[in-house]
């Protein structure tokens, strides 16, 4: 089942493709089936704080990974490195085969379009409707006007918000707001979907709806990386769990449960 | 490309409207600076025109004694006219001098009429081939019986050149200072706009918007502030040009000069260019720090 057709890099607005298939046969295929690879990644800050200490992490295409660990363990730092908000002090971060440290400044926006990201606080624009919020991600990346409408309709259908398209975020429930954010994260047909505490502000029932949605997106072929403290969800799903502690990966298990020390 | 410009303009307009109060403040400051700028340009243009007039027209004026014999005056006029340095001599009688004065300053008629006698002297107005011959001619004139005194126009011209030079230097200095203040205010206004939309910028970065898409709406916003400021200034100048001309003419009473209206177009262009330029520069400076990451 095909889902979204992103704006710029794709052949055309009506030509759908399976998400997760590479845009093109990459020139330098560094393990093409790996979406994310971190090798010996260390991140230290000028104030001496060390956020990551030699992290290795390989995420193959189609994986669903929980990133767990206490606050300050390094989850946010990994996410910041992935969206290239920050750069690793040591080690290599490859996203879809591209070395983020060697990325030219002007190529950063393009690599960010390969990532869909949602946060605990949704980050929606309050004076824009659901549809406008989603369309915004396409407008500001220079998508041709006529392609925006169909793409927005499609992602709104995926997240089940077609009926609320014209409402403002303030008129929506928390779950609906997060689904709007998810829809926005999907418009560029991402290779990697990052969810940073997506259920942190939601009650358990709504949280499950959001998790179901993320699972569905994963089934559609999108690799999902979810940072969370939600033990119940992690344990119930039996997915891969990567646990961080003090900037190190202390556990990396498939079909795992949440541990108390996480 | 057109879509990009349309997008940027739309967002710039939304930004201005969103921060109406600050936009008005920035525009008002811009108007203030542009008004100062155009005032200085007009003043300097007027002074330059005056200077040219003085240099070209009468170069030596010899005031004649009221008691002078008309025959002597005639002889003197002929003699001066035959001097090789002189191109033209004309005699201005007391009556003519009064008429010229009243023509230039009709408001003073009452004052003049209340005087017991015509206070203005008759004069010989002499044009020179070369202004440097002034001293020869003036010395000759001073030694002639009918001549009361010789007006030293050259000295007046030299003084004016100095005054204009000082005015220009001071004016430009003041303008630079005011320009920097305006730039500072614009930078702060746009920075406030940037800060108030930090969420939006963050989202734009997250969804992979290029720097151009983030930067240009703000640049357009600054340009719009400059444009509005310039248009308001030009409108004010347009409305005020009648009164301004009157004031200027009054100010330069001593010389028969009219503030020229042809400077209008040049002033408008300078105002427009400066306004938009400062707006764009201000935006560029304030958004820059947000993009270096």
Commentary on this structure:
The complex is a heterodimer of chains A (262) and B (293). Chain A is built from seven helices and ten strands. Chain A has 262 residues and is an alpha/beta fold. Chain A has a domain at 61-83 and 114-253: Rossmann fold (3-Layer(aba) Sandwich). Chain A has a six-stranded mixed β-sheet, sandwiched between helices. Chain A has a four-stranded antiparallel β-sheet with strand order 2-1-4-5, with helices on one face. Chain B has 293 residues and is of the alpha+beta class. Chain B folds into two domains: 2-54 and 158-291, no CATH class; 56-152, Alpha-Beta Plaits (2-Layer Sandwich). Chain B contains ten helices and four strands, in the order H-H-E-H-E-H-H-E-H-E-H-H-H-H. Chain B has a four-stranded antiparallel β-sheet. Chain B is elongated. Residues 254-259 of chain B have low confidence and may be disordered. Chain A binds chain B through residues 83, 85, 106, 109-113, 115, 117, 123, 125, 136-137, 139-142, 144-145, 184-185, 187-188, and chain B through 3-4, 7, 199-200, 202-211, 213-214, 293.
* Order of strands in the sheet with most strands of chain A: 6-7-8-3-9-10
Q: Strand-residue fraction of chain B? A: 5-15%
Which consecutive residue ranges of chain B, at least 5 long each, have pLDDT under 50?
254-259
Enumerate how many helices of chain B there are, as a single number.
Answer: 10
Under CATH, the topology of the domain at 61-83 and 114-253 in chain A can be stated as: Rossmann fold
Could you say which structural class the secondary elements and strand pairing of chain B correspond to?
A: alpha+beta
Structural class of chain A: alpha/beta
Summarize the helix and strand pattern of chain B as letters.
HHEHEHHEHEHHHH
- Specify the helix fraction band of chain B: over 70%
């Amino acid at each position: 089942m095909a889902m979204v057709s992103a704006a710029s890099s794709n052949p055309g607005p009506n030509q759908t493709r399976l998400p997760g298939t590479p845009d093109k046969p990459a020139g330098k295929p560094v393990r093409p089936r790996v979406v994310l690879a971190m090798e010996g990644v260390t991140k230290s800050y000028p104030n001496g704080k060390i956020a990551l200490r030699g992290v290795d992490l390989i995420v193959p295409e189609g994986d669903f990974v929980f990133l767990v660990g206490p606050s300050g363990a390094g989850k946010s730092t990994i996410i910041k490195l992935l969206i290239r908000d920050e750069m690793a002090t040591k080690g290599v971060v490859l996203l879809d085969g591209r070395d983020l440290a060697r990325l030219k400044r002007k190529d950063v926006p393009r690599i960010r379009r390969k990532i869909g990201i949602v946060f605990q606080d949704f980050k929606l624009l309050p004076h824009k409707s659901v549809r406008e919020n989603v369309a915004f991600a396409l407008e500001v990346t220079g998508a041709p006007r006529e392609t925006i409408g169909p793409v927005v309709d499609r992602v709104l259908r995926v997240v089940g918000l077609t009926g609320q398209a014209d409402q403002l975020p303030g008129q929506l429930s928390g779950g609906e707001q997060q689904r709007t954010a998810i829809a926005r994260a999907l418009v560029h047909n991402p290779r990697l979907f990052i969810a940073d505490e997506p259920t942190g502000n939601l009650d358990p029932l709504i949280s499950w709806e959001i998790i179901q949605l993320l699972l569905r997106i994963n089934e559609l072929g999108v690799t999902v990386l979810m940072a969370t403290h939600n033990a119940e969800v992690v344990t119930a799903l039996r997915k891969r769990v990567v646990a961080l502690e003090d900037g190190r990966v202390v556990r990396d298990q498939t079909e795992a449960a949440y541990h108390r020390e996480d | 490309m057109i879509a990009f410009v349309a997008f940027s303009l739309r967002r710039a307009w939304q930004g201005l409207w969103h921060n109406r109060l600050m936009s008005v403040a920035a525009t008002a400051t811009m108007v203030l600076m542009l008004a100062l700028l155009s005032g200085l340009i007009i003043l300097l243009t007027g002074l330059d025109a005056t200077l040219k007039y003085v240099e070209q027209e009468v170069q030596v004026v010899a005031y004649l004694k009221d008691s002078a014999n008309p025959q002597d005056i005639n002889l003197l006029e002929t003699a001066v006219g035959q001097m090789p340095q002189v191109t033209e001599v004309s005699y201005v009688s007391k009556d003519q001098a009064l008429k010229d004065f009243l023509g230039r300053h009709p408001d003073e008629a009452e004052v003049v009429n209340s005087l017991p006698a015509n206070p203005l002297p008759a004069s010989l107005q002499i044009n020179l081939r070369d202004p440097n011959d002034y001293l020869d001619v003036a010395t000759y004139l001073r030694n002639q019986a009918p001549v009361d005194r010789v007006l030293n126009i050259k000295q007046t011209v030299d003084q004016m050149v100095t005054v204009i030079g000082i005015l220009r230097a001071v004016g430009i200095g003041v303008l630079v200072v005011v320009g920097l203040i305006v730039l500072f205010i614009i930078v702060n206004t746009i920075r406030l706009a940037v800060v108030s939309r930090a969420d939006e910028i963050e989202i734009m970065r997250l969804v992979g918007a290029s720097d151009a898409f983030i930067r240009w709406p703000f640049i357009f916003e600054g340009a719009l502030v400059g444009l509005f400021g310039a248009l308001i200034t030009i409108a004010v100048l347009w409305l005020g040009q009648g009164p301004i001309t009157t004031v200027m003419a009054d100010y330069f009473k001593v010389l028969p000069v009219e503030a020229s209206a042809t400077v209008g177009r040049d002033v408008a262009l300078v105002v427009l260019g400066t306004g938009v330029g400062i707006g764009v520069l201000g935006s560029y400076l304030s958004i820059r720090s947000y993009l270096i990451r």
